[in-house]
Specification:
Length: about 180
């Protein structure tokens, strides 16, 4: 029988109240609390699935599981970041992410009210390319890919893929010009 965690990892409908998932989130929260109290890079290395050389994360940081976050080399995650990693979050090399950014992989049933009431959800991965800059307060929604060398303006809500080498801003985020 397939577990709720396996369903989550493959993008199927799953229950986030599953005891295994609850225990894993609690374990991640202990590491998050330890990191936020100490700012130790060693804690982030234990928490993240992978962390590239020269990358760093500022406190206060929040995530669900940690092991689904993969951050490339020489990348920076500023204060108050929220990474809901129910699906994989991949952050490339040389990425700068401004304060209070949110990368949100979780999706909840829209039309199936009973499934939502029973806490079923799905998740879709987020991919941030190399040399991307996300301004402060940017929200990246589930399933989005942002191409290499792109800049997303502060406060933008990214609801769909953004191509490489562009400046994109707004809610919803739209390409303004090529870079």
């Amino acid at each position: 029988m397939i577990t709720e965690k396996q369903k989550m990892m493959t993008g199927e409908l799953y229950q986030d109240s599953d005891p295994e998932l609850v225990a894993e989130r609690l374990s991640a929260q202990r590491l998050v609390d330890e990191f936020n109290a100490t700012r130790s890079g060693d804690v982030i290395k234990k928490l993240f699935g992978s962390l590239g050389e020269g990358s760093w994360v500022m406190p206060r940081f929040q995530c669900d599981y940690g092991y689904q976050i993969h951050m490339g080399s020489n990348s920076f995650l500023n204060y108050d970041a929220i990474l809901m990693d129910c699906a994989t979050i991949t952050i490339g090399d040389d990425v700068s992410i401004g304060p209070r950014a949110q990368l949100l992989t979780a999706l909840h049933p829209v039309e199936d009210h009973e499934a939502r009431r029973q806490r079923f959800e799905t998740a879709a991965p987020i991919t941030i390319g190399n040399n991307v800059w996300l301004g402060g307060g940017v929200i990246v929604c589930a399933g989005v890919t942002i191409g290499d060398n792109t800049v997303i303006g502060a406060g933008s809500v990214v609801t769909r893929d953004i191509p490489p080498r562009v400046l994109a801003v707004g809610n919803p985020c739209k390409v303004i010009r090529e870079l």
